[in-house]
Amino acid sequence: MVEPPVDKAKKVNNAHLKNVPQEREMRDRIRAEAVQFVKNIDRSKTLTKPILQKMGEDLLRDTRLPEEFLGFSMVSISNEFWREQVSAVDFKRRLLLLPHCLKNAEGCPADYDEFGLDCRKCGACEVADFKTKAEDLGYKVLVSEGTPIVLKIIVSGHVDAIVGVACLNVLEKAIDKILMAGIPCVAAPLLSSNCKSTSVDNDWVFEMIGLKTAPPEKKTKTYVHLMRASNQMFEPANLNKLAPRQRNKNPLDGVQSEDPLTLHENISYDWLMQGGKRSRPFITLATYDALTGGKGTLSAEGLELSDSVKRSALAIETFHKASLVHDDIEDDDTYRYGQQTLHRKYGIGTAINVGDYLIGLGYRLVSRERKVLGSEIAADILDKLADAHLKLSEGQGAELLWRDAKDKTINTLEAMKIYALKTSPAFEAALYSGVRLAGAADKYEKMVTDFSRHLGVAFQIINDLKDWQGDADNKMVAGQDVLAGRPTLLLALALESLSGGDREELLAIVQGEHPRRNEDLLPRVRQLFAKANVFEKTEKLIEKYRARAEAIADEVEPLELRELLYYLVDTVLDRPEAEHNDAEPVMVSLSLPLVNV
């Protein structure tokens, strides 16, 4: 079999192709064909969703099976691709993920606790059987109603492989993240998707749980090790090593100080350690790794990240966290990372000062490494940070002046300029820092600027679309951009498309001059946006800027950096299927199941 070429992972809708064969003989046949199909695949290369789909289509064509089984064939092929690598992971480093719908829906005596279903004492259904065997082997087991925290568990460093049971709908949604991150995973599809007392081929699940072999000769590239390295920098002990506190010399002793200087430092460091995806320091570390051989994508042992490199990556996050503090004050947001914003908790003055402190900390993290990095490298990185700082301030300043002006008219060009200044500089600084840490940056500078601009604009559009569903990462209440009168692309598109009374009414709402100003006007704004086809237009713009970023990546050498850029496009612009532009505004719940790790 000729192996498909490396491809960029693009979104594919397989909603009508996710039927599980109901005859066991057919399921066994597809699994057996997948074993043969995967034999000659080079497992050192990343398996992307488009490649996996192509393989599934080829398998069905060669075996003359109907296309409705495409999803099942893709899972079967993916299982064989990852089988050896899952088998080589110690049982204690694996996660068994089970769906709640496998339990006995009628009369299930087990209760949910913070670790999922507590069913060891029951044994009345397959969940208990699978869970007991896995736990006896040393697995961590999660029985939950979804998979939103699986990637977080992987990144935390406690788990290196997943054995999952889920319906094809869930597997199709999860496959992008799992493939992009390079997480070894095998899964058994449920035989139906009715989400109540469903079933699975039990012997397949038991076989997968018990997989155990020696490590394979070739490992597939993964960014998990670099994601973990990025997250681990913010663990208290590591952060104190990389950026030692000046006031609280022993932050891990648990002693609370009432000294105002120490208290201020603690607030600043606690904020720096708060949530978020930490994508910017990851970009710096991963770019540096890609330009120094890409060993970190093959094993944790291959990571060669000095403290000086880590401090430079850490500086990117201090600037980002500072900008969030100031942005929350300027927009008077209530929530960030599911908690009260700093200015709501400690007051505006303290929050402003925390942001200023973090900016100073970021500059110092780089400047004090000049003897190790070399004065020219340190100066170049500091210059790029300063440039990003200025551009971000320009973008935010333009937004604030527009917001406070009486006239709220805005066109798409003006909105795009603000977008490019508000978001792109952070990506540019993160990418550039990684490049410069690895060597000369001259030949990459234009690429870094152009790629970051397209990625940043698409990201900002997606972020504004998320405002219509609420955002568990940042804001919890939908529609805040309209209520606060912010200059979004959605508003610009609507004002350019609407005319007459509709345009005047939208302006009146944004300017706070609508006669029903004390009523909930969000449904009316949604109607006006829909009438102007705003959501459809923004979807096309997202794909336009995604394509531009990918076109730039197409020309990049070496291969390791090109693959990273593809990965960044897919992860930074990732959009869970549950988010729909026409969804009603909702309050997002942040309650998530935890796993005992």
Largest sheet: 4 strands, parallel
**Fold-level CATH name of the largest domain:** Farnesyl Diphosphate Synthase
Percent helix, as a range, is: 55-70%
| Oligomerization status of the protein chains | single chain
Identify low-pLDDT runs.
1-7, 577-597
Report the count of strand segments.
8
Distance between the termini: 41 Å
Mean pLDDT: 84
Q: What is the CATH first-level class name of the largest domain?
A: Mainly Alpha
Q: How is the largest sheet built, in terms of strand order? A: 4-1-5-6
Q: Round the Cα radius of gyration to an integer and report it.
A: 25 Å
Instruction: Indicate the CATH architecture of the largest domain.
Output: Orthogonal Bundle
Strand proportion, as a percent range, falls in 5-15%
- Count of domain modules: 2
